[in-house]
Write a structure and sequence with these properties.
With 94 residues, this protein is an alpha+beta fold. It has one domain: SH3 type barrels (Roll). The chain has 2 helices and 5 strands; from the N terminus they run βββββαα. It has a 5-stranded antiparallel β-sheet with strand order 3-2-1-4-5. The chain is globular.
């Protein structure tokens, strides 16, 4: 299964951003996102690439959906996919 994961852009250096995913920070390539990305923006990440910038009006709903997904059963395949993309050591804010 392939699922993009939302994250908050912390910094941008050229075409590489440091993005926070529930407390786990990773470098993400901005090579294929089709609009400028700045710190504070949210992007949808897939295997290390920002595939799109999440519009401001969709951020809260998108994050709520992923929080619900991550609160689901451990055997849920979508939850497993998100956790593997983010990393097993993730810390979710309360």
């Amino acid at each position: 299964m392939c699922l993009g994961v939302p994250g908050k852009v912390m910094s941008v250096d050229g075409l590489v951003a440091v993005v926070d995913f529930w407390g786990v920070q990773k470098q993400v390539s901005l090579h294929i996102v089709d609009e400028p990305v700045v710190p504070g923006d949210y992007i949808l990440n897939h295997v290390g690439y920002a595939i799109r910038k999440i519009p401001q009006e969709e951020i809260a709903e998108t994050l709520a959906m992923y929080d619900e997904l991550l609160d689901g059963k451990p055997e849920d395949l979508m939850r497993q996919d998100v956790e593997s993309e983010v990393g097993a050591s993730r810390e979710r804010p309360s």
